[in-house]
Amino acid sequence: MKSITINGSKRESVGKVATKALRNAGKVPCVLYGGDNPLHFAADEKAFKNLVYTPNAHTVVIELEDGAKENAILQDIQFHPVSDKILHVDFYRLFDDKEVTMDIPVHVVGKAPGVMAGGVLRKAKRKLKVKALPANLPDFIEADVSGLEIGNKLYVTQVADENFKILHPDNTVICQVRVSRAAMKAAQEVGKEAGKAAAVESTEEAEEAN
After folding, report:
1. In what residue span(s) does the Large ribosomal subunit protein bL25 beta domain sit (predicted)?
2. Considering the entire predicted model, what is its pTM?
């Protein structure tokens, strides 16, 4: 999985006054969990642009002023309810021999025959929660829809991989091909016309019988 580097500096004080001063200076207070002790540090708000405002998944290299580096993943992020500014970020330290859980984006590939026949592809899951060793975390999960006819569904079991575990029930649908609204409306109109024709025919038969 691709990594993004976040340059930070250790925080000597973690009180409300110090935190407010950091935010006023365009910094974001952060905490790195995992291991023996949490690591408190701060980073420029603009450093999170490519990590937070993207559909892609990344691991993080936290590089501190003293030259220390920590491998981590984004665990939680808090936004201001009005301005949407980043208020606080939590990271979790990665260990080569410990599995971690991440949300991985789904990339749909292929052309579904059902779509070419007039159906519509509905995406039920744009991300899947997986568990794996850091080295086995995928950049994305490929969902091949080239075998989907109208009415068919693609389940998580069909994108399983031995390198990671998908943390969703086996019957979880990733995407499906459904009949388009236009096709449904057309079918309903045909049904109505057929019903009218059948009613007329029945009436005519009754009149002939009399």
Report:
1. 99-179
2. 0.79
